[in-house]
Design a protein that fits this description.
The protein has a two-stranded antiparallel sheet with strand order 1-2. It is an all-alpha fold. The protein has one domain. Helices cover 63% and strands 1% of the residues. Strand 1 and strand 2 form a beta hairpin. The chain contains 20 helices and two strands.
């Protein structure tokens, strides 16, 4: 029996690709894209002053772009040339969709067959439970993304072209495309200036388009497809909202309910907390107060744009942003954070324990125990990362605790919001934040598995004896 087990271990693992697991391929692939981006951004032609920005700064910017974060050490509009800005937006698109998604698309265009190994990496990259339909899903993601970004860019151009007509129609179009891609990918990079979207605080068109892109990108691609499939089916039959909602998958239901709940909760909180703040919303007018509070509720879902001064917000609002940034968007999308479903499952589990229920149930469905365990692992590892980075920043940088916690959470959640300390980070601080953004984009569990020396499943079903311990 022992000899048979040893022979089984020596067999080639079918899940390995050139000696690497899919999680390791993802980590190495993202790192390679970041490294290439850093090299390009460090070229003299990428900077307005025609001088190298320095490899650490270039690496930080490339990491922020690929990890769709938005934290910057220099002003994106003023420092980078058109070449540098284009490199950044390409990195954002690659990071938002995932390099494997784009690589697979290129293979499809070239007529190449996607191998089983490639499908395994795609499955890990898109956070799917099955290999079935993975190539079809990739095609849908690319087509859907280009359509949404294109439509959004058109509407943004209606505002940007007239506003920047002195710089030429081309610049207005470029701004529209740049911000459409950045917003959909939840990146937070902008070409407006040092104040992000504050100059457009009362612009209804820009606010609605940017918020719509943030929400769509944060919902997740699998939710898109489920909504389209269910809506098409209902239109062909007798359409009712109740039946439409019932036909959605449990994942989609959770995403929609949690997303709406967090947006409404955030809006109500920011409206109450900042309505009378003379440094943010008080003197902006009723419409701007409503738009400002709503935008500030949507943006922490890992987008990083802002229409009010973050540094001038009350501490309670800053802490609320930290909570929203930590939760982030939804799985299989462009957003970061621990994800809405992870947070929702743990809340439901706690409620089940409080009510004395043996199982976690929602919408007449039971959540499997392995999903709850994974959600708990994601939450605990994520908390560990944020706490560790916060402590490191308080040591390496001259910042107070709240600013350090805000910066650490923003980096981990790939949000890109800052209270103004990013440009003043030391080289060590920039490296710490870069690593945090990298972990946040790929996910803490993926990173843990990638660096694990052993990922094989245990052979057999050997269970140790149970023994109860005291909890609480």
């Amino acid at each position: 029996m022992i000899k048979r087990l040893e022979q089984t271990k020596k067999k080639k693992n079918p899940h390995k690709i050139f000696g690497f697991y899919p999680t390791q391929i993802l980590v190495l692939g993202f790192f390679a894209v970041i490294l290439l981006g850093a090299i390009l951004l460090n070229l003299p032609m990428a900077s307005q002053n025609n001088e190298k920005i320095g490899f650490i700064n270039a690496l930080f910017t490339a990491t922020s772009a690929v990890c769709v974060t938005g934290l910057v050490v220099v002003n994106t509009l003023e420092h980078w040339t058109l070449f540098g800005k284009t490199v950044i937006i390409v990195l954002i698109q690659i990071g938002g969709l995932g390099f494997m998604t784009l690589a697979t698309s290129l293979f499809i265009i070239m007529g190449k067959k996607i191998t089983l190994r490639g499908r395994l990496v795609m499955q890990e990259a898109l956070n799917q439970n099955s290999l079935s339909g993975i190539v079809r899903l990739t095609k849908s993601i690319i087509i859907g993304t280009l359509m949404v970004e294109g439509i959004a860019a058109f509407f943004l151009s209606l505002r940007f072209i007239p506003l920047y007509i002195e710089e030429g129609i081309g610049w207005g179009i470029y701004l529209s495309i740049f911000h459409a891609v950045s917003a959909f990918c939840n990146a937070g990079f902008d070409l407006i200036g040092p104040d992000s979207l504050v100059p457009f605080q009362g612009d209804l068109l820009i606010n609605v388009v940017i918020m719509g892109l943030i929400v769509l990108g944060g919902l997740g691609f699998t939710v898109w497809l489920d909504l389209l499939r269910t809506t098409k089916h209902e239109i062909e039959n007798q359409f009712t909202w109740k039946h439409w909602f019932q036909k959605l998958t449990l994942h989609t239901k959770l995403v929609l309910v949690l997303t709406l709940a967090l947006v409404v909760l955030g809006f109500a909180f920011f409206a109450v907390a900042e309505w009378s703040n003379p440094l943010t919303l008080q003197h902006t007018g009723f419409k701007n107060q409503i738009l400002g509070a709503l935008f500030q509720s949507v943006s922490p879902r890992t987008a990083g744009f802002n229409t009010i001064s973050l540094a001038k917000m009350k501490d309670a609002s800053k802490f609320m942003m930290i909570i929203l940034m930590f939760i982030g968007g939804s799985p299989a999308g462009t957003a970061g954070g621990v994800k809405t479903v992870t947070f929702g499952i743990l809340v439901l589990t706690v409620l089940s324990v409080v009510k004395g229920k043996p199982r976690t149930e929602v919408f007449h469905r039971t959540i499997p125990s392995d999903i709850i365990q994974k959600a708990l692992a994601v939450m605990m590892i994520s908390l560990g990362v944020v706490v560790s980075v916060t402590m490191l920043l308080t040591i390496t940088e001259e910042v107070n605790f709240l600013d350090a916690l805000f910066e650490a959470t923003s980096a981990f959640g790939t949000v890109g919001s800052t209270l103004g300390i990013t440009p003043n980070l030391s080289n060590l601080g920039k490296i710490i934040i870069s690593v945090t953004m990298f972990i946040g984009r790929l996910g803490p569990v993926t990173m843990a598995l990638a660096f694990s020396l052993k990922q094989d499943r245990h052979i057999g079903d050997i269970k140790s004896p149970e023994e109860r311990v005291l909890v609480g």
